[in-house]
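#struct-help
A.M.: can someone run this one for me? Single chain, 426 residues.
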Amino acid sequence: MAITRPKGTNDFMPDEVLSWQYMENILRDLCKQFGYMELRTPIFEDTELFIRGVGDTTDIVQKEMYTFTDQGNRSLTLRPEGTASTVRAYLEHKMFAVSQPTKLYYMGPMFRCEKPQAGRYRQFHQFGVEFFGSNSSAADAEVISLAWEFYQRLGLKGLEVRLNSVGCPNCRPIHRKALQEFLKPHFEELCSSCQSRFEKNPLRILDCKSPVCQKIVENAPTTIDCLCEECQEHFAGVKSYLDAVKIPYHLDPHLVRGLDYYTNTAFEILVTEIGAQSAICGGGRYNGLVKEVGGSNTPGVGFALGMERAFAAMAAQGITLPTKEKFDLYFAPLNEEADHLCFMWLTALRSQGIACEKDYMNRSLKAQMKYADKIHAPYVVIVGDSELADQKAVLRCMANAQQKEIDFVNLIDSLVEMVNGGKENE
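D.P.: on it. Structure tokens below:
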């Protein structure tokens, strides 16, 4: 029996990877314009980082992490999300010691052991940004606007920003008490996970996916009802900045996100066309996370978006990403001597940044021309017996079938000038 990929994972074929690279370039350009620098962290970390950083009452820590013990009896976990690792790196490398704010982004694979379904995989890819050092409402609005601008550049329509404030350590105990009082008469009806959360972190119950629990909390006290004056001012500031740049949003008092580290702003961006998993981006403020991981009180705000979900939303809306032609030139040798010459020219041109390819299958000229068209090569250099005799190669334009001859001695310079001139005019 043939070995297949693990359940909940994907292979991305070369043509698909071109679209991934195009999307990644959009994200990198966007981060450059917004002033974010890329950070790369290990794919696995000490398990304790996620227990402390993500929260031991979350579904991620309780049910979904890939955790293993290595030969040194150390508990390690494949990263289920990127924020905790970013905070760990921020502290370990003392990025807090330089002028603030610190603005970072990451992209790469994450891992969660959950039931695979449309838009949800066991290995998936996230892009995220983290903004450390500022408690300004403008920082919250900036990360939301960065995510919003990304989806605009993809051409997605029908997006909705859902916005809430989950308060701070001063006002959350008030909400906690009110929520527990509301839930107490329904305790026996809650699922077993929510019963265990009732004392430790009842806010998590609002995020439960059980239909029974969702029904119970429909009329539960909200965090908005309990915000202190400072949190009210912060939330009003976030809304005012979003209003200023005309990013539409919908207030959702039950939005708490699935991670324990959020304070103040919580948000999601939704698109309706991808089914039940309609949230394609989520984030918020986490002023207590840096201290929880071992640092001092440091404000932070950020988001993560699922790249597979972005592709799913684009597919649902009929959007495809353009990809540039793979090659500038194709060499079509018609005998062994010509093949050696073409190989030499190919190597020389590649060293000057020209993307080119040649035949390796001893195809006929007709078959080579068909292959050149398949790989979208705009020009073909043909060398056969007559070309060797005249010391002139034939250059054929695939768009209009026009041909011209190029002397062997000038071939490299002529082709470099032609290709680079064409790129400048694009």
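A.M.: thanks! The first strand starts at residue 37 and ends at 38.
D.P.: also worth noting: The chain has two domains: 14-171+223-316, 329-419.
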